[in-house]
Design a protein that fits this description.
With 194 residues, the protein is of the alpha/beta class. The protein has a single domain, classed as Rossmann fold. The protein has 6 helices and 7 strands, in the order βαβαβαβαβαββα. The protein has a 7-stranded mixed β-sheet, with helices on both faces. The protein binds glycinamide ribonucleotide (GAR). The site of glycinamide ribonucleotide has 14 residues, from α1, β5 and α6.
Length: 194
């Protein structure tokens, strides 16, 4: 669990791999006067991630990291975290697996958003699989990250109805709207609970 020890604003590092709409949304929410968190660092697993543009737009430090080299990653990340006094890590469309070592080191401080009602549909193609299985609902989940994929303790979930005419694309778009509401809510919840 996070120990805030009187910190006024929690410094958050957001990890992305692509578009970054959850990142942009978290940044916008952090601008709210009452926000208890600040997005202080953007880490991307790819130099091609279009979400990197938000670093420039909002004047936030960014770092592209090669997640295939474990020892280098940890060294690079730890240095960047120290500089920015990072308290919490939010994975937002981050498509790499973090090392067990790294997860252990930040135990209880890494959050992830996943586009399904976990524990159902861990992994990829969640909407497609939910539709194929004729589920009535899909949704999204914010959870703590542990060493098993999409399996950490759930913080908040939101259900989204699946309609007969839905495709994976139309469902993903409706779920994304709920993701944008859920992630800041979950982040504020864990901050307020401490
Ligand atoms: C979001 O739908 C997020 O839930 C999902 O990727 C999308 C990223 O969108 N994450 C995963 O599938 C993680 N396994 P964004 O880059 O626009 O935030």
């Amino acid at each position: 669990m996070i120990k805030l020890n009187g910190i006024k604003k929690v410094n958050v590092a957001v990890f992305i791999s692509g578009r970054g709409s959850n990142l942009e949304n978290l940044i916008k929410c952090s601008k709210n006067k009452k926000s208890k968190f600040k997005i202080s660092l953007i880490i991307s697993s790819s130099s091609k991630a279009s979400g990197l543009k938000f670093a420039k737009k909002f004047n936030i430090k960014r770092k592209v990291i090669n997640f295939n080299n474990n020892t280098l990653i940890e060294k690079n990340l730890l240095m960047a975290f120290k500089k920015k006094h990072i308290n919490i890590i939010c994975l937002a469309g981050f498509m790499k697996i973090l090392s067990k070592n790294f997860i252990k080191r930040f135990d209880g401080k890494i959050l992830n958003i996943h586009p399904s009602l976990l524990p159902k549909y861990k992994g990829l193609n969640t909407h497609f699989r939910a539709i194929q299985n004729k589920e009535s609902y899909s949704g999204c989940t914010v959870h703590y990250v542990n060493s098993k994929l999409d399996s950490g303790k759930i913080i908040l979930q939101k259900r989204v109805k699946i309609f007969k005419k839905d495709t994976a694309k139309s469902l993903a778009a409706r779920v994304l709207i709920q993701e944008h509401a859920l992630y800041p809510k979950a982040l504020n919840k864990i901050i307020n609970d401490h």
